[in-house]
Amino acid sequence: MRIGLITPEPGHPLLAATVALLVPEHQVQTLDPRTVEEVPEPLADVYLLKSRTPRALALARGLEQRGAPVVNSAAATALCQDRTAMAELTRRAGLPFASTRTFTTLAELASGPRLPGPVVVKSRHSRRHDLVARLDNDTQLRDLAAAWPQEPVVVQEFAPNSGWDHKLWAVGDQLFAALRRSELSPGGSGPTMSLTPGSLPPGWHALVCRVGEVFELDVYGVDIIDTGDGAPLIVDINAFPGVRGQSGAPEALAALALSSTSRSSIAGRGRVTGARGA
User: What confidence score (pLDDT) does residue 266 get?
Assistant: First the structure.
């Protein structure tokens, strides 16, 4: 079987470990979207899209138009980069997502009414080194706007929580979980701590499954905070996250790639049927 990786970083721990499981029985080819524009025939049996740049998305769309399956699809990957579109889709689907407002620029937000209370401001378009900040007062808002005046942003009301983010990752039909100190907490983010399946509140597995179905994702991450008594609030959704240090993740990704044996859309999206400790 031929498997293509769309990534500028084939040495990423998850990808490198997955490739080690696949070769030599299968052929693995890396496509660097920074340099590759057209892929010659024969195409691979499946492509894993581990990049979110415009060039990577364009490359993936071209492969899909030629009949090649791409995990995740270019459309699903692009959707997860637009936090406004993400919020609208989750709201229509009835998912417990943080209330979200969109502003053309951070300067526009700063010129408006006073902040109603603590809020979280994020870049509208998710990318490396984007803006994610908690603001408690208008002075902080003005300072942030001075540094990022033209940044399109979304604003979410700050939901009281324990200060810990639940990081849930789905790879095919496997679920992985960990707990990480929120980067918005006073002390900043800390190390990731493994979670066992039984430690997650009831219903959270099904919630992750529903996210996969709604967003048509096969490899994805869902960031959840516990707002009290196990009540989940989704604060972010990511296409093809790193899933670093999660035992069994490379095996799950290799199995997902091998299960895609034809150039057609991947069946059974969002099929989270079990869980593993991180």
Answer: 40
Q: What span, in angstroms and rounded, lies between the C-alpha atoms of 97 and 246?
A: 25
Whether 71 and 49 have beta carbons less than 8 Å apart is answered as yes
Report the mean per-residue pLDDT for the chain: 89
In a domain, 128, yes or no: yes
Q: How far is CA 147 from CA 105, 140, 141, 158, 173, in A?
A: 12, 11, 10, 22, 42
The pTM (predicted TM-score) of the whole model is: 0.90
CATH number at residue 134: 3.30.1490
Taking the CA atoms of residue 51, residue 192, residue 177 and residue 78 in that order, the dihedral angle to the nearest 10 degrees is: -20
Structural domain for 142, as ranges: 99-157
The residue whose two tokens read 């951070």 is 106
Q: Give residue 229's pLDDT.
A: 77
SS3 243: coil
